């Protein structure tokens, strides 16, 4: 047993909660996309429709996304591990080799994603070493009928759901 202040213990215990994997994206006024991998995503409210993503304060991509005032949450499919890895790396061209299209809302929708959720940034709250970003949902896109990419105990897993 370890206390909540033990970084390794905290990560190990909370890593036993399987989560879906998303990529948060936007496109700036010059048409240049920005994105980051995010497993801390959840629906927040049905009325009004709100979602939340948690972003590390150290993210170099988040300031570029935040400057646009909007983002899309791309829900990754089980066959998109390499896409997730590309967006989890800092300082690289994350969109190299990744197909995407610009949405009418000024975000990037990744090819092959299960769904895309276009949002306007509603609010940002500071919380420890992360930011809690609240997004007002503008449009929903259901793209594929496949299993989700999951993250569990520090590794990827595929989910078979019917």
Write structural notes for this entry.
The chain has helices at 7-14, 62-68, 81-88; strands spanning 19-20, 22-27, 33-38, 41-45, 50-56, 70-75, 100-102, 108-110, 115-127, 130-142, 149-152, 155-158. It is mainly β and 162 residues long. It has a seven-stranded antiparallel β-sheet with strand order 3-2-6-9-10-5-4. It has a three-stranded antiparallel β-sheet with strand order 1-11-12, with no helix packed on it. The protein has a two-stranded antiparallel sheet with strand order 7-8. The longest helix has 8 residues, at 7-14. The radius of gyration is 15 Å and the shape is globular. The model has no long low-confidence stretch (mean pLDDT 89).
Notable characteristics:
3 helices, globular, mainly beta, 14% helix, 44% strand, three-stranded antiparallel beta sheet, 12 strands
Q: What is the element layout, followed by pairings?
A:
Layout: H1 7-14, E1 19-20, E2 22-27, E3 33-38, E4 41-45, E5 50-56, H2 62-68, E6 70-75, H3 81-88, E7 100-102, E8 108-110, E9 115-127, E10 130-142, E11 149-152, E12 155-158
Antiparallel strand pairs: 1-11, 2-3, 2-6, 4-5, 5-10, 6-9, 7-8, 9-10, 11-12
Quick overview of this protein structure:
Helix content is 14%, strand content 44%.
């Amino acid at each position: 047993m370890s206390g909540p202040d033990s970084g390794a213990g905290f990560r190990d215990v909370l890593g036993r909660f399987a989560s879906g994997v998303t990529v948060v994206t936007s496109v700036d006024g010059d048409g240049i996309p920005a994105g980051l991998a995010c497993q801390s995503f959840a629906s927040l409210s049905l009325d009004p429709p709100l979602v939340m993503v948690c972003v590390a304060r150290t993210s170099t991509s988040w300031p570029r996304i935040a400057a646009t005032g909007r983002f899309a949450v791309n829900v990754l499919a089980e066959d998109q591990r390499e896409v997730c890895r590309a967006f989890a790396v800092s300082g690289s061209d994350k969109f190299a080799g990744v197909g995407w299209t610009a949405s009418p809302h000024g975000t990037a929708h990744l090819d092959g994603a299960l769904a895309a959720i276009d949002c306007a940034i509603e609010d940002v709250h500071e919380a420890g070493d992360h930011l809690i970003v609240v997004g007002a949902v503008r449009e929903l896109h259901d793209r594929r009928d496949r299993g989700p990419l999951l993250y569990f105990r520090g590794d990827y897993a595929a989910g078979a759901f019917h």
